[in-house]
Design goal:
The protein is of the alpha+beta class and 271 residues long. It binds zinc ion. Zinc ion (ZN) binds next to loops.
């Protein structure tokens, strides 16, 4: 599943090249998770002013309105001057004066949704509940601590829920908790101020490193430039059940937490 770093890598790979382009045509394939919400022909002639990211949504800004794109479980975007005819799993072609943006999504959990503005109900339905951006300036350690103080659930569950901070998926939550020495099952509200500061730094560090390395989670992840970006992040705990901890050599433990795999070192993660 593409996680925040893959989505950011995708954004970086085509945002500059598509900015300033005009929409020449739009073709939608089979139904995706949600309908587009407008006739594709209505977008012809629109100017693409930029591409932003909010959580795992890409926001393609138009001179009127915007497109929200989600990659779902298996989606990838490819932007190129010329493309082959669309295949059975290509469900959006946005033809512009600067190239063709194509969504390839075999499992069709992805979505392309048009909204009048970011504040409109169509957009807020998807974006309204999202927590702060972990790589943005709003992710601030005092506010993070205050938000965790109100949460009685296990810290890993709170991170995955995305309401405090958005886009910290299973791999990155597991790795950040290892880096900050925190047991995944500890109540979020119980973490000390220094421990929260360590976790805050670890979340930023693990996500920034993944973006720098081109994303890490989807085995067949391909950025919109066509570069492979899979599993380049050397995991400390994720997927390493029974293997020695890279710090203390204790075998890494695994258990199911809220139907998700959790990996941790019982010695290094005591808090
Ligand atoms: Zn260890």
């Amino acid at each position: 599943m593409p996680e925040l770093p893959e989505v950011e890598v995708t954004r970086l790979s085509f945002a500059d090249r598509i900015a300033g382009a005009k929409v020449l045509a739009m073709r939608m394939g089979k139904p995706l998770r949600w309908p587009l919400g407008v006739e594709p022909v209505a977008l012809v002639g629109r100017l693409i002013t930029g591409v932003r990211r909010r959580g795992k949504y890409l926001l393609i800004d138009l001179d009127t309105g915007l497109l929200l794109v989600h990659l779902g479980m298996s989606g990838s975007l490819n932007f190129a001057l010329t493309q082959d005819l669309p295949g059975p799993h290509d469900h959006m072609d946005l033809e512009t004066t600067q190239g063709l943006l194509r969504l390839h999504d075999p499992r069709r959990f992805g979505a392309v949704v048009w909204a009048r503005s970011e504040q409109s109900p169509q957009a807020q339905k998807l974006l309204g509940h999202l927590g702060v951006e972990p790589l943005g300036d709003d992710f601030e350690v005092q506010a993070f601590r205050a938000a965790l103080k109100g949460k009685q659930a296990a810290i890993k569950q709170v991170l995955l829920a995305g309401q405090v901070v958005v886009g910290v998926g299973n791999i990155y939550a597991s790795e950040a908790l290892f880096l900050s020495g925190i047991r995944p099952t500890v109540k979020a509200a119980k973490l000390s101020a220094p421990r929260v500061a360590k976790l805050h730094a670890a979340i930023r560090d693990v996500l920034a490193r993944a973006v720098a390395k081109g994303g890490s989670s989807l085995r067949d992840f391909v950025s919109a430039e066509g570069k492979n970006g899979y599993f380049q992040l050397e995991a400390a705990v994720y997927g390493r059940t029974g293997q020695p901890c890279r710090t203390c050599a204790t075998p890494i433990k695994h258990f199911m937490q809220g139907q998700r795999s959790t990996f941790f070192c019982p010695v290094c993660q005591k808090y």
